[in-house]
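Field notebook, page 346. I keep forgetting to write these up properly, so this time I am using the form the group agreed on. The chain and the ligand, FE2/S2 (inorganic) cluster, are recorded exactly as supplied. Prediction of the bound pose follows.
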Amino acid sequence: MSVIEELAHAVTLPASWYGADPGIWEHERRTIFGREWLLIGREAELPEPGSYLTETIAGSPIFVIRDREGELRAFHNVCRHRAGPILWDGRGKCDILRCRYHGWVYDTKGALRRTPEFGEAAEFDKQDFGLFPLQVGIWRGLIFVNLSADAEPLDQAMLALTEETAAFPIESYHFHSRAEHEIACNWKTYVDNYAEGYHVQAMHPGLDREIDPKQYQVVLKDRHTVHQAPQRDGANYSGLWLWRFPNLAINIYPTGMNIERMMPMGPNRTKLVYSFFFQDVSPAAETKIAAAIGASLEVTKEDVQICEAVQRNLDTGLYETGRLSPRHENGVWYFQKLVREALAAA
Ligand code: FES
Ligand SMILES: [Fe+2]
């Protein structure tokens, strides 16, 4: 079937996949979030040896640290003794990694160095109890991790996006601020919503004054999509809105960029993390920056409101599946197709 034919027949994912069926959540943790390269921060956040940051990826606590030689390393935040946390959540700097529970000490390469007061355990070799490593890489100043040991290299995974963003000097943008929103919905409820401009007219009156939702287009690419929305005033818009499977959006504007991550925290909880960057972050630019962030926040509030309401309705058990708009919901169809494929490949 061609894409047009498939779209004409497109049916949404079952409502039970949005949290009610706990098996789907476990399945997604392994087959999607356990296999994809996922953005977790900026390289500049780890400026020197010992700098670290923690994150939770679909229920798996992890951390990234810069080792003594300056290399980035990533590990599960799980001690090999009795699964205590190596680092409390957050960012910081440390010389050695000392488990918070009973004080086992690891070096920044993950090797177990000391087990204070442990006693003489039989057939116990420290070498067998290093931290569980994961893959880490840098793409355009951004840190990505992959929980899978046999994932394709990051450069290869990001090839399509490297080409897509080649014209934009995003490394030169200055980080301005970060904003987080906890949302009571499944991560797919939010991504579905991000994937279409069909709801702009009804849900985003402010945005609707600026762009023409009838002409909102989502172009399907290689595991990512490009969103295009002509401005009502006919201004020549030179930005780029990108979404990449599973949970990353990069919105590049003529004056900066907003990176958005939809982090699944549980079957019914999602943390939306925004990082705002601008070309000019001088005090003189602050009024414009505040206006840009304010406009983004307004749209986000509207999206959160609708996604939480949709989630409550999906949870009732009344609605099972719906049909997708062939004109406006090709992005939703494509995202859901990638989810279906990932789960089927397991
Ligand atoms: S759990 Fe880490 S030292 Fe015991
Ligand atoms: Fe929206």
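OBSERVATIONS:
- Residues 193, 199, 203-204, 299, 303 surround fe (ii) ion (ligand 2) (CB under 6 Å).
- The mean pLDDT is 95.
FOLLOW-UP: compare against the apo run.
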